[in-house]
From TrEMBL, chain A:
Species this chain originates from: Citrus sinensis
Protein name as it appears in the record: Protein AUXIN SIGNALING F-BOX 2
Automatic annotation (TrEMBL), chain B:
Pfam families: AUX_IAA
Protein name from the UniProt record: Auxin-responsive protein
Keywords annotated in UniProt: Auxin signaling pathway, Nucleus, Repressor, Transcription, Transcription regulation
Lineage: Eukaryota, Viridiplantae, Streptophyta, Embryophyta, Tracheophyta
Function according to Swiss-Prot or TrEMBL: Aux/IAA proteins are short-lived transcriptional factors that function as repressors of early auxin response genes at low auxin concentrations.
Length: 569, 158
């Protein structure tokens, strides 16, 4: 193995970029392990509690880019109490103390304080990129620190965050010398923004490719920004409220025609329910369109827009588009790869199985789906499976819980069964509707590549969960709520959980005793009981059913920052 | 005589509003014919009572549908809200040193607005009087764009 000097092997490793591959490479021999770890620049930690920052830094001293995920997925749906954990401060602190030249930090579902952002901004001279997704805990003061202190900042990207907006002056904190911005996304901020400062910032950022504005940026400012940044590739429009006869609107229309580089469009956070004809010239080149935050756009207007989007590869939309609109998508968007249809909350606007069938017939390249719908039938799912065996991600959410096939009144076992049997590369699956243990039998049998499974209000007995645990060899994340799986399912194959990242079970049939048994047998798992009401305090009864259990493999034992209501068994 | 029946004056903050009235400088205000208002209030009470059921109905499970809270707050069910989000109107109260502004788009109906105005001006008894409209001596009125005093409730909330 050592026919080549280390430098040559290292050079070869430069071409090995995916973390998975690099992990495999590091297992070959001690020499390769050493070369790999010293040359690795990008580290992904799927669960911040699986390892400590000190050990990560120790193994990868050349670390430049760190991605961390904190809370489990179901935290998105308010199933996890507010201060369960996921604080990133200890990581930033440890990195700051070390000699790591951090350039990029990407966080998902973590708690980030202003102090943390301040520390981050002051500790790493070459810091370039901050991406926060579904995070919380900071205010615009923290953003001001990043703006002011990170001299070579390229990327500041905030997604799906509720930030406490103290004032809109953080934009003014970018010094005049900061000309390196490539990507700026503050669309989720709710407060006012200093528009003049924003204009000047965009004017001095010749490399700016991605700009996503919040709702406080009005149309005339948008027009000025587009004039200064005709090279934009990705645009998020904040406010699109205008008077059609106004000069501002006419100017904007003219400016948009000149923006030939835009490939991705999103936002419309505030929009006049009127025509969007100004956008039509941009549509023909779009590969990505996200109108899922724009409830103000009516179905008909959406459809008109879609007709121009022949090159679309990614579409995120609200169900106000309707089955008819999805038919138009199927007819027009032959390059479509990813579709997400979110609920608008308006009852009569939902989509049904019709829309999905149309899409599966019309869009041969579709492989990623998130679909909130009013109803679904087995026949439709079987047709979808026949039309399209490419799905890698298939997430279906029938809004009415435990709803059967409305035509046959049967559970949807056969429909989902057809999907997993046909889509051999399926990695992620979310189920809904009325489902029995049978669907899990199918999943265990056919879903060989499945890595993540989300179950809610499904199944009849422990057998269901056991089919999955026994059958899905590549399973990494399993999250279950309100399903009748208990201790037998939990305890039959305890070794399985060390091959997985995590397991979430809430409102199931597992008891405190069952969880304790598991924790005893598997010391390298953290088995957390999240205890919101005081029930458990009063009765430490083994037979007590557990409200919420979250378990994950870890190399560093029970976490020291767990709040009172979290018991690590 | 008609004016006396229809006119409502709001006392200084702190008083229980025995003779209460509300002036406003544009066509906002909880305004309703006695019967129509109490009908609406009854409706609201019915809905509220429905929500207070001890056993939650099927639609009220935490975290369902599985839409993340950021998305819920920003688009879910807010289609109407977005369209009317800029409906700020001025409200004045006799004896108060300054006016207040209230966003009509933030409220779902006249009873809701009544509660909000109550909170804003710290005057109690308004919505109580209006809930039990038949026994109340007072009726809300408002001043519209043309400067006319109008009895409320003729114009539907939307």
């Amino acid at each position: 193995m050592n026919y080549f000097p280390d430098e040559v092997i290292e050079h070869v490793f430069d071409f090995v970029t995916s973390q998975k591959d690099r992990n495999a490479v590091s297992l070959v021999c001690k020499s390769w392990y050493k070369i790999e770890r010293l040359s690795r620049q990008s580290v992904f930690i799927g669960n911040c509690y699986a390892i400590s920052p000190e050990r990560v830094i120790g193994r990868f001293p050349g670390l430049k880019s760190l991605t961390l995920k904190g809370k489990p997925h179901f935290a998105d749906f308010n199933l996890l109490p507010y201060d369960w954990g996921g604080w990133v401060y200890p990581w930033v602190e440890a990195l700051a103390k070390s000699r790591v030249g951090l350039e990029e930090l990407r966080l998902k579902r973590m708690v980030v304080s202003d102090d943390c952002l301040e520390l981050l901004s002051r500790s790493f001279v070459n810091f370039k990129s901050l991406v926060l997704v579904s995070c919380e805990g900071f205010t615009t003061d923290g953003l001001a620190a990043i703006a002011a202190n990170c001299r070579y900042l390229r990327e500041l990207d905030l997604q799906e965050i509720e930030v406490d907006d103290n004032r809109g002056q953080w934009i003014s904190c970018f010094p005049d010398s900061c000309t390196s911005l490539v990507s700026l996304n503050f669309s989720c901020l709710k407060g006012e923004i200093n528009l003049t400062a924003l204009e000047r910032l965009v004017a001095r950022s010749p490399n700016l490719k991605s700009l996503r504005l919040n709702r406080a940026v009005p149309l005339d400012t948008l027009q000025k920004l587009l004039m200064r940044a005709p090279q934009l590739v990705d645009l998020g429009i904040g406010s699109f409220v205008y008077d059609p006869s106004s000069e501002a609107y006419i100017k904007l229309k003219a400016t948009l025609v000149k923006c030939k580089s835009i490939r991705s469009l999103s936002g419309f956070l505030e929009v006049v329910p009127c025509c969007l004809s100004a956008i039509h010239p941009v549509c023909q080149n779009l590969t990505s369109l996200n109108l899922s935050y724009a409830p103000g756009i009516h179905g008909n207007e959406l459809i008109k827009l879609i007709r121009f989007c022949r090159k679309l590869e990614r579409l995120w939309i609200l169900d106000s588009i309707g089955d008819r609109g999805l038919g138009v998508v199927a007819f027009t968007c032959k390059e479509l790869q990813e579709l997400r249809v979110f609920p608008s909350g308006v009852d009569n606007a939902a989509v049904t199985e019709e829309g999905l069938v149309a899409i599966s017939a019309g869009c041969p390249k579709l492989h990623s789906l998130l679909y909130f719908c009013q109803q679904m039938t087995n026949a439709a799912l079987i047709t979808v499976a026949k039309n399209n065996s490419n799905f890698t991600r298939f997430r279906l959410c029938i809004l009415d819980r435990e709803k059967p096939d409305p035509v046959t009144m049967q559970p949807l076992d056969e429909g989902f069964g057809a999907i997993v049997q046909s889509c051999k590369r399926l990695r992620r699956l979310s189920l809904s509707g009325l489902l029995t243990d049978q669907v899990f039998l199918y999943i265990g049998m056919y879903a060989e590549q499945l890595e993540m499974l989300s179950i809610a209000f499904a199944g009849n007995s422990d057998k269901g969960m056991l089919y999955v645990l026994n059958g899905c060899k590549k399973l990494r994340k399993l999250e279950i709520r309100d399903s009748p799986f208990g201790n037998t399912a939990l305890l039959t194959d305890v070794g399985k959980y060390e091959t997985m990242r995590s397991l979430w079970m809430s409102s199931c049939e597992v008891t405190l005793g069952g969880c304790q048994t598991l924790a005893k047998k598997m010391p390298r798992l953290n088995v957390e009981i999240i205890n919101e009401d005081d029930q458990m305090e009063f009765s430490l009864d083994d037979r007590q059913k557990v409200g919420k259990m979250y378990l994950y493999r870890t190399l560093v034992g029970p976490r020291k920052d767990a709040p009172d209501f979290v018991w690590t068994l | 005589m008609e004016l006396e029946i229809t006119e409502l004056r709001l006392g200084l903050p702190g008083r229980d509003g025995c003779d209460s009235g509300l002036n406003s400088s544009s066509n906002n205000n909880k305004n309703e014919k006695k019967r129509a208002f109490s009908d609406i209030c009854d409706e609201a009470n019915y809905e509220t009572n429905g929500e207070r059921k001890i056993n939650p109905t099927k639609s009220q499970v935490v975290g369902w549908p599985p839409v993340c809270s950021y998305r819920r707050k920003n688009s879910f069910n807010e289609k109407d809200r977005v369209e009317s989000s800029k409906m700020y109107v001025k409200v004045s109260m006799d004896g108060a040193p300054f006016l207040r502004k209230i966003d009509l788009g933030m409220h779902q109906g006249y009873p809701d607005l009544a509660m909000a105005l109550e909170k804003l001006f710290g005057c109690f008894g308004l919505s109580e009087a209006l809930k039990d409209a038949d026994s109340s001596e007072f009726v809300p009125i408002y001043e519209d764009k043309d400067g006319d005093w109008m009895l409320a409730g003729d114009v539907p909330w939307e």
